[in-house]
Write a structure and sequence with these properties.
Number of strands of chain A: 9
Oligomer: heterodimer
Structural class of chain A: mainly beta
Largest interface: A-B, 24 and 27 residues
Radius of gyration of chain A: 14 Å
Radius of gyration of chain B: 14 Å
Number of helices of chain B: 0
Distance between the termini of chain B: 36 Å
């Protein structure tokens, strides 16, 4: 799986959009970009994923650059409950391969301030 | 659906004791995983299973054993607890989508302290 680079920490004001960047310059054509988050002391929570098109769901939007070498997770209206570590993970689609695990790096600690 | 459930939430073990961490899912997922997370670190895969009766080692399997007799349950066994096994253990499950992306769903975790 391609390596990802994320800032160690970010701050955001409550009610504002939080934009979390991720670099994955070695991504391959069949690799997806996943975002998970982990609120303190809880299990990781899936947020969103995409291959090359921008994606949106009830939690967030994912913007992937045209060359797919970077992406941005957008939380449109951050709340205090969004304070968490956010992980960007690049992972090959399962095509009979053996790479089943999710490789979690250190992620970005997003702190939403009142 | 309850999703992925884990018991116990917290346990203290003495060195050399054994215990089983329980994990169950009610989403009819074929794939299940055990991860451990040490303080300030990312998750590391211990064991995984692609279906009942099939298990395989992950990155850090030493000191652990697993079994998968049913689709729903995937217990993790520690035979001789060591201080190095002090960690938070997460179970996860997913449904294989034949070459397409898939999402793993995680349980709330079990905190284990070995003294």
């Amino acid at each position: 799986d391609a390596k990802t680079t994320q800032p160690t920490s970010m701050d955001c004001a409550e009610g504002r959009a939080a934009n979390l960047p991720c670099n994955h310059s070695t991504i391959s054509g069949n690799e997806y970009v996943y975002w998970y988050r982990q609120i303190h002391s809880q299990g990781p929570q899936y947020i969103i994923h995409g291959l090359k098109n921008n994606e949106t769901n009830e939690m967030a939007s994912l913007i992937i650059t045209e060359d797919r070498k970077s992406s941005t997770l957008i939380l449109p209206h951050a709340t205090l409950r969004d304070t968490a570590v956010y992980y960007c993970i690049v992972r090959v689609a399962r095509s009979g391969g053996s790479n089943y695990k999710l490789t979690f790096g250190k992620g970005t600690l997003l702190t939403v301030n009142p | 659906n309850a999703g992925v459930t884990q018991t116990p939430k917290f346990r203290i073990l003495k060195i050399g004791q054994s215990m089983t961490l329980q994990c169950a899912q009610d989403m009819n997922h074929n794939y299940m995983y055990w991860y451990r997370q040490d303080p300030g670190m990312g998750l590391k895969l211990i064991y995984y299973s692609v279906g009942a009766g099939i298990t395989d080692k992950g990155e850090v399997p030493n000191g652990y054993n697993v079994s998968r007799s049913t689709t729903e349950d995937f217990p993790l066994r520690l035979e001789l607890a060591a201080p190095s096994q002090t960690s938070v253990y997460f179970c996860a499950s997913s449904y294989p989508r034949g070459g397409k992306s898939e999402t793993q769903y995680f349980g709330p975790g079990t905190r284990l302290l070995v003294l």
